[in-house]
Amino acid sequence: MTAVRRAPAQTTSTRAGAVPVVRAVRVRAVQVRRALARPLLVRAGRVGLVLIWSVLVWAVLVWSVPTGAWAGVAGRSPAAAALIRTGPDPAGPAGPAGPTSSGRPVAGNGSPIPLFAYYYMWFEPASWDRAKIDSPQLGRYSSDDPGVIRQHIRWAMSAGIGGFILSWKDTPTYDRRLRLLMSIADEEHFSLAMIYEGLDFNRHPLAAERIAQDFRTFSDSYAADPAFYRVGGRPLMIWSGTWMFSHDQIASVTGGVRNRLAVLATAKSTEDYQRTADVTDGNAYYWSSVNPATDGHYGDKLKAMSQAVHARGQYWIAPFAPGFDARLIGGRTVVDRAGGATLRTEYGTALASSPDMLGLISWNEWSENSYVEPSHTYGFTDLDVLRSLRDVRTPLPPSSADSSGTPGTAGAPGDASGLSLPSSWPNLLLLGAFVLLLLLGGAGARLRMRRGESAPGPRSVPPDGTRTT
Residue 62 pLDDT more than 80? Predict the structure, then answer.
């Protein structure tokens, strides 16, 4: 019986003696695991920090570019954009322009063909009282408003438009507005070309001598600016209304500037183009009133024009428009926009003519209702269509302009009270907050790990099995 009573005592003593050993082994195992994990955690933390800062730098580089810049020339650095627009002339300064340019902006991810929109600088607040059935979202603006111009350029770039073709003639008002546009285009890394209005308000031709002088003025005073898009190394100049001038009149104007400007005619037929092809450098057909729903052969006309121009190694600008309605200024043709279908059809037809440039009619021709500028009636529909056609990935932010259209209230770029698009600072602040949270979370984890290392281990149990207090 005695042996039977001792057995439990021996078992209890053995277990009590083994407890400290087991706990010591466990503590040592935990210490070993922590010692092995510490270098891995440190390395992982360093790699994580490198990745976080890499993402931050990448985001800063992306978001610091103006909104929509990846859609046009501004998708490159300022130096690269200037090089593209002013690159060396591979053909030399003299001779007719070829079908390629020395500076072609990338106007969208999906097409290498540059897209420019015809742009008008004739607006005063009072202009909106005449022959208008719609109004811009920016209100009754003036073409002297730098905030409006900057907004136009940023909206255009966001939709894949690489430049504006500016309507101009040498007057104090036009010259002032041209200089303003040049300045903002340079800041936004946006391209410009010119269309000279060779007809007066009543559609009568100007004197050839006056046109020749204006061409020389542009060449001497403005053409050297890096904003101007170049064909064969020469700034692109379109002469509107060449069909109203004789061959000799056109030759008298272009003869003195063709070594400095690439001058395109605006012929409406291949016969008229051929009539002056030896004294011009190509053709830009301004055809805004065609109705693709009723004219099934207009695409053939564009292709025939393209073939005639390219047969001479010259430059072809194909037209397309979102719609047309000039009834308030005496016209009778109406081309319905059809919810963007007309714009899509005309774009595809123009592209099928193998153009060297696409000429969108227009950014802001409000009297003929061929504009794509955001309006109260159509909103951003046309720019959305263009973005999809050009495969532009940059979304179009909403305008910060007051929809009431109070003129002359545009602020400086980035000013929330002005007309410029929202700046990138909110995005950068959100990203910075995210990075800060990651850093704080990592620091908290390391602090908890260090506290765990410095905490006392399990208390030892004496051989008699009682715990110390």
Answer: no
Phi first, then psi, for residue 335 (nearest 5°) are -120, 110
Highest mean pLDDT among 135-144, 409-418, 428-437, 447-456: 135-144
- Interhelix angle 146-158/172-188, rounded to 10 degrees, is 50
Handedness of CA 82, 83, 84, 90 (dihedral sign): positive
List of E strands, 241-313: 262-264, 282-284
**How big is the chain, counted in residues?**
469
The structure tokens listed for 21 are 């050993």
pTM over 0.70: no
pLDDT tens for 188-221 read 999 999 999 999 999 999 999 999 999 999 999 9
Angle in degrees, 0-180, between the axes of helices 381-390 and 146-158, rounded to the nearest 10: 40
Q: Which residues contact 253 (CB under 8 A, 6 or more apart)?
A: 208, 211, 212, 215, 239, 263
In eight-state DSSP terms, residue 355 is: -
Report the chain's C-alpha Rg in angstroms: 35
Paired residues of 230 in beta bridges = 235
